[in-house]
Write a structure and sequence with these properties.
37% strand; five-stranded mixed sheet; 3 helices; 26% helix
Length: 111
Amino acid sequence: MGDIEKYRKNIQKIIKRYAKERPLPKNIEGQTIFDTERDHYQLLNVGWDNDTWIYGCVLHIDLKNGKVWIQHNGTEVEIADELVKLGIPEQDIVIGFHSPYKRKFTKFATN
């Protein structure tokens, strides 16, 4: 179990970067949601694309029991590898959207 405050900052750094760098249609907003009290972090797309309402989670990361849980990754980038580059050890990252059975076949934590 590592430095939780460092984990919070690095998660926010990644989400802010993706919110800023991703090209979006004119009326779609990338919203960052940082619940630092309960340690839930998200990037959402919200807005209208012509006559279609767009609302969806692009990235969702939680901190649970001292570990970084990637709950959803709708990007084309391996967010877990990005977190490792920022100094978060593999054993402190859980790919939450993989079933518990599949997690044991990755280099990351199982829970």
